[in-house]
Amino acid sequence: MATYKIYKLHFTSPLHIADRHADSSNSLKTIQSDTLYAALMSCLAKTGTTIPDDGDLGFTVSSMFPYYQRGKDGKPVYFLPMPMQARMAELTDVSVAKKVKKIRWVDAELYAKVLSGESFFDGTDKYYSYIQESYLSETALPEDGEGSREFVKSEVSQRVTLQSRTGEEDAKPYYVDKIIFRYDSGLYFLAEGNTGLLEKALHVLAVEGIGTDRNVGFGFFDYSADCLTLELPKDANHQIALSLLIPESKEQLSELLSSKEVAYDFTRRGGWITTYPYTSLRKDVIYGFTPGSVFAIPQQQTGMLIGKMVNLKPKIGDLTPNHAIWRNGKSIMLPIKLK
């Protein structure tokens, strides 16, 4: 058994998370660990806290995952990413293949079975009834008026940009995708290490908001701490990432990919610099593996925390920023057994 400290974010306003295309009509529904870490680091800097030269604040966070909760006093159901390898299980009932393919999240109560390598869809009907759109859970998620059980909802609304202060010129409409959390649900993340600085930063972040469109009231939240206990397999032969992962070296990358059973996805990280006077400049670009990716366990690996910090400060002569721009690629890993 392993117990992790977690932080629950209950959003008091809509949330918009821009993707790398910066298209306001489309919002992501989760926040990656490196984005969260960068936001926390920025909040600490604003409080006058000295940021270490290597960017390491003494803690590591997972990416944000959804939790379902019905009522403020209801028991939360925490979801974790479906291991990518698990989606490739052989199905004897082809009629449910599409339903199984849509699963992205597994509740923590079932996660021990996932990590132990138990096959959910082996011809029995037991677990088919647990499939609720993108969630696999023993808890029955309520349906809305449209028959959907998704409690993290996307709502697109129209807004207008005026071309002058007087509003006399033609207005240009545009669309914003708002993420709404039904009931008392929200996002949460796991944390390891010294959480003192994390909580100091999180207190500021709750007031400043997270995501984009904060200037129009998006991304504000309340938060609380909790614990999540998971039963981990003792005979694991692989591991799953819960954070965005940037391997420490080419050698480590080679070992992580050394098994035929690995399954992964990766994403491009970069974007605009947000500190004045460098806001017209872009960061350097790097790719990281996304949560849910499954890897081999290198022989020399001693713990379930791997990855590295990367400085994405661009070098452009006199315009080069005078500070580091850290991207955290350290990941919390969980052991998993693949048959």
Tell me what the structure shows:
The chain is of the alpha+beta class and about 350 residues long. It has a domain of about 100 residues. Helix content is about 15%, strand content about 30%. The protein has 5 helices and 19 strands. Strands 1, 2, 3, 4, 5, 6, 7, 10 and 11 form a 9-stranded mixed sheet that branches. Strands 15-12-19-16 form a 4-stranded antiparallel sheet, with no helix packed on it. A two-stranded antiparallel sheet has the order 8-9. Helix 1 crosses helix 4. The model has no long low-confidence stretch (mean pLDDT about 85).
Write a concise keyword list for the protein shown above.
339 residues; alpha+beta; 9-stranded mixed beta sheet; 4-stranded antiparallel beta sheet; 5 helices; 28% strand
List low-pLDDT spans. none
Number of β-strand runs: 19
Mean pLDDT across the residues is 86
Q: State the end-to-end distance.
A: 21 Å
- What is the CA-based Rg, rounded? 21 Å
Secondary-structure element order, as H and E?
Answer: EHEEEHEHEEEEEHEEHEEEEEEE
Beta-strand percent range: 25-35%
Q: Can you tell me the overall shape?
A: globular
Task: List the SSEs and their pairings.
Layout: E1 2-11, H1 33-46, E2 59-61, E3 65-68, E4 77-81, H2 97-101, E5 105-107, H3 108-115, E6 131-132, E7 135-136, E8 152-161, E9 172-181, E10 186-193, H4 196-208, E11 221-230, E12 238-241, H5 250-256, E13 266-269, E14 286-289, E15 294-296, E16 305-306, E17 309-311, E18 326-328, E19 331-336
Parallel strand pairs: 5-7
Antiparallel strand pairs: 1-10, 1-11, 2-10, 3-4, 3-10, 4-5, 6-7, 8-9, 12-15, 12-19, 13-14, 16-19, 17-18
Helix pairs in contact: 1-4
